[in-house]
Specification:
With about 290 residues, the chain is mainly beta. It is about 15% helix and about 50% strand. The chain has one domain. The chain contains 3 helices and 16 strands. The chain has a 16-stranded mixed beta sheet that branches.
Length: about 290
C-alpha cells in the first residue's frame, strides 16, 4: 500500500513538473505562435536599445502624386522609458473632391476645407514607461482649417488632457485601458510582431486626432517579394480594420512597415542614406 502511494506521488510530481516546464517553454519560445496574438508596446519595444528612425513619403491616387511625408523617431531612455515622436507634413491643391472627402474622413470630420490649397503640420509625442504603458501624450496640428494642441498625462487607467482648440482652453478626461498604443498621424500602426501567414493580431490604439481609442484587428494574408531600394525583400501582406478604416501593409519579417495603403493614400518607406562628412567631400578647385 505504501509503495503504491509512493508511485502515485512520484507520478503526480512528474506530471506537475512537465506542466510547469511546458508553460515556461510556451512563454519563452513560442509566445504568440497561435493563430491569434495581441500586440502592445512590450511586443514592439522590448529589447530596443538604439534610437530608430523611419521616413515614409505620402502619395495620393493611382498616379502616386506626392503630397507629404511622415517621420517617426523612437528613442530609448536611460531610465527605461521610451519617447516616440511622429511628424507629418501635408501640402497640395484642393482640386480633387475625392481627395478632400477622404482627407476630411481621416481628420475625423473636423474643420472646413475650403479654398484652393491645403497645408498642415501634425506632431505627436508619447512617453512610454518601463512597464510599456503610455505615461504622457502631446499632439499638435496646425493647418489652414484646423488648429488643435493638447498635452495629456495618464493616471491609473485615465487620460487627462489639457487642450487649446482654436484659441479656447478645454479639459478632457477619458478611459485608456492598459496595453493601448498611439497610432501615428495617418492611422498607421507602426510595427507588427511575430508575423506568420494566417495569424490574427489584435491591438488597441489611441487616435490622437479624434482623441478616442479603437480596437484594431490585423490579418496576415500572404507572403510575397517586395521591390524596394533596387532590391527584392520578402514581406508579409497584412490587412487591418481600424474603426471605419481598412488598410493594407507590406511588412518585413522583423516587423518593419515598408508600404502602407489606406483609402487612396499610399505611404512608402524611404531608405536612410548616410551623409558624407565634410572631410569626405571632394575639395573645390581654385577658380571654380
Amino acid at each position: 500500500m505504501l509503495k503504491k502511494k509512493k508511485i502515485v506521488w512520484v507520478v503526480s510530481v512528474t506530471v506537475l513538473w512537465l506542466a510547469v516546464m511546458a508553460a515556461l517553454l510556451q512563454r519563452e519560445y513560442f509566445a504568440g505562435s497561435g493563430k491569434e496574438i495581441k500586440a502592445d508596446y512590450q511586443s514592439t519595444l522590448k529589447g530596443l536599445k538604439e534610437e530608430k528612425h523611419s521616413r515614409l513619403s505620402l502619395y495620393y491616387g493611382p498616379q502616386r502624386t506626392k503630397i507629404g511625408e511622415l517621420q517617426t523617431i523612437i528613442q530609448p531612455q536611460e531610465d527605461g522609458t521610451f519617447e516616440i515622436s511622429n511628424r507629418t507634413h501635408l501640402s497640395f491643391d484642393l482640386h480633387d473632391p475625392m481627395l478632400v472627402e477622404q482627407l476630411h474622413q481621416m481628420f475625423g470630420g473636423h474643420g472646413d476645407m475650403q479654398g484652393e490649397n491645403f497645408a498642415a503640420g501634425l506632431q505627436t509625442k508619447a512617453r512610454i514607461g518601463p512597464d510599456y504603458q503610455i505615461k504622457e501624450i502631446s499632439f499638435q496640428v496646425q493647418s489652414n482649417f484646423l488648429n488643435l494642441a493638447y498635452e495629456g498625462q495618464v493616471k491609473g487607467n485615465r487620460l487627462m488632457l489639457d487642450m487649446e482648440h482654436h484659441g479656447k482652453h478645454e479639459k478632457h478626461e477619458m478611459a485608456l485601458p492598459p496595453g493601448t498604443m498611439v497610432s501615428d498621424n495617418l492611422g498607421s500602426l507602426g510595427q507588427f510582431p511575430k508575423l506568420a501567414v494566417g495569424k490574427q493580431i489584435h491591438m488597441r490604439c489611441f487616435d490622437p486626432i479624434s482623441r478616442t481609442y479603437r480596437l484594431a484587428t490585423s490579418q496576415v494574408v500572404s507572403q510575397e517579394n517586395f521591390r524596394w531600394d533596387n532590391r527584392t525583400i520578402p514581406v508579409f501582406v497584412v490587412h487591418t480594420t481600424f474603426g471605419p478604416f481598412k488598410s493594407t501593409a507590406w511588412v518585413t519579417e522583423d516587423g518593419e512597415v515598408m508600404q502602407y495603403q489606406i483609402l487612396s493614400f499610399t505611404l512608402v518607406r524611404e531608405p536612410v542614406r548616410s551623409q558624407a562628412k565634410p572631410q569626405d567631400q571632394p575639395a573645390t578647385q581654385k577658380g571654380q
